[in-house]
Structures are given as structure tokens and as C-alpha cells.
Specification:
47% of the residues lie in helices and 20% in strands. By secondary structure, the protein is an alpha+beta fold. It has a three-stranded antiparallel beta sheet with strand order 2-1-3. It is globular, with a radius of gyration of 13 Å. It has four helices and three strands, in the order E-H-H-E-H-E-H.
Length: 90
């Protein structure tokens, strides 16, 4: 079955600080510090994110819903667009 709901999570206290400061990430940074998750239903995605949010204060992460990085192509620009949109909301 084709999973329609997904999120990319950026893990690490140092990397989340870099994200919020608007710093650039290399493809290697993204490969090392992001993980992609996909789900068959929105409810599964929402439950996963709720679980992550329960850990706030215990560990740091940034959740980018509906972002899938393609490491075979240039992925930094799509990540950067999401980063700029996300940090402009702060």
C-alpha cells in the first residue's frame, strides 16, 4: 500500500539549534540527522507526532510534515524552503 502521510524528523539538540538559527545544512548533515517516517493514515501520523511531542524537554527534534528528502538529488533546497517557512512562523 502507498503511504500517503509522512514526516521528516530532524534530530539532535545541536542540529535543531542550527535549524532555528536558519543555518544551511549539507546533504551529509541531512543524511546523518534526519529520519523519514511514512504512515497509511493521518491518525497514525498524528499519534506518532503526539508521541514525539510528549518527549519535548527530554530530547530535541524538528518535525517537518509532508517533507520527503531525496538524497539521490539535490535535497538541500527543499529542506531550506521548509526551514525558512518554519522559522518565519516563530
Amino acid at each position: 500500500m502507498n503511504n500517503k502521510f509522512f514526516a521528516t524528523i530532524l534530530y539532535s539538540e545541536d542540529e535543531t539549534k542550527r535549524f532555528y538559527r536558519g543555518e544551511n545544512f549539507t546533504k551529509e548533515d541531512l543524511k546523518l540527522h534526519t529520519k523519514f517516517y511514512s504512515f497509511e493514515t493521518k491518525e497514525e501520523l498524528d499519534a506518532f507526532i503526539l508521541g514525539l511531542e510528549e518527549g519535548i524537554g527530554w530530547y530535541d527534534f524538528v518535525c517537518l510534515k509532508n517533507l520527503k528528502l531525496d538524497f539521490e538529488t539535490e535535497c538541500q533546497s527543499s529542506f531550506r524552503e521548509e526551514q525558512l517557512a518554519f522559522t518565519s512562523l516563530k
